[in-house]
Amino acid sequence: YLRNSDDFRIGPVPILGIRDERVLQPLHALSIAGSVRIPLVVPQAWYDSASTRSAARAAAASADAARRQVRAGFAQAAWAAAAADEVVLASERAVESAAELTRSAQRRVRAGTAAPLDVLKAQTEQVRRESDLTRARADGERGRLALGILLGRDGPVRVAVPTAVEPEPSRGPALVDEALSRRPEIAAQEAQVAAADEAVRSARARILPQLSASASAFAQDVPLPTGKNDGWRVTLDLTWLAFDGGFREARQQQASAQRASARAAADAQRLAVVQEVADGVRELDVARERLRLAETQGRLAADAAASAKRSFDAGVASSLDVIDANDRLYQADVGLADARARLAQARVALDRALGM
Hints:
The chain contains six helices and seven strands, in the order βββββααααββαα. It is α+β, with helices and mostly antiparallel strands. Strands 5-6-7 form a three-stranded antiparallel beta sheet, with no helix packed on it. Strands 1-4 form a two-stranded antiparallel sheet.
């Protein structure tokens, strides 16, 4: 809405060819206008768009890395829960062995070949093994509940783990090259570097001119001197920001610093992947050796427990010898379960390091 201090009109003037009254300045005028501006050539926007796409790729790769990390953690938790189940079985066998020792000691006391103290020792060992069984069952239930929470469920979940031994992966530089080519973290860092490069180009492109097209139209309730109530205009605009007070140079320095930071982060990520692969291979070798030793220890402990039982039944060994042998067998079974779980977890960690 427009209001002037006065209006000015030209009446009919035959000399000038004006047959109707023309309004040069209305007292009141109500007008409406609209305009649109379409960028045609904006060099800075090209690099900004490329930087945004690179940042989107980095975000997608980071999300993939997070998902793989969660899957690896779930697999390791599943193997830990499986080891807890094996400990439960070992505790049940230990309880049965302690109960059998108690019955054997009671028979010897009734036969007069052993003192009542042997029964008390056997019963004490049985109570201790029952306590171990209770704790092992609680640990197994806790592990299954943790698996259920990872799956988004309220109750415990039992996961069946494979028993077959997977083939040993290849060694050497090829293993590191495979990891560097498959890890999503590397792809995310490379995308971040690409985004930083485009940001530097965008800062430099701020000095280039921009070309755009504009169109506008208007209409009002008072006719123009031409007698028309509306009009339109189309223009081609060239904008060149020659001086911005140093903002362009500051943006370029900031973008260059961010690019240097992104490149340093990419180098650090590569070194971290190389370290993870080396650690994974070493941990896998150590886990294999521990499993071999645990299996050997289990066989020896089983033979020692069987020998102690026979000697006790024959009256050669004491109940303490049987209790000690059974305790060593129980510890060997627990160690074997732990060694199997650690071997599987080491394999999962190496697969995670390789980007599988």
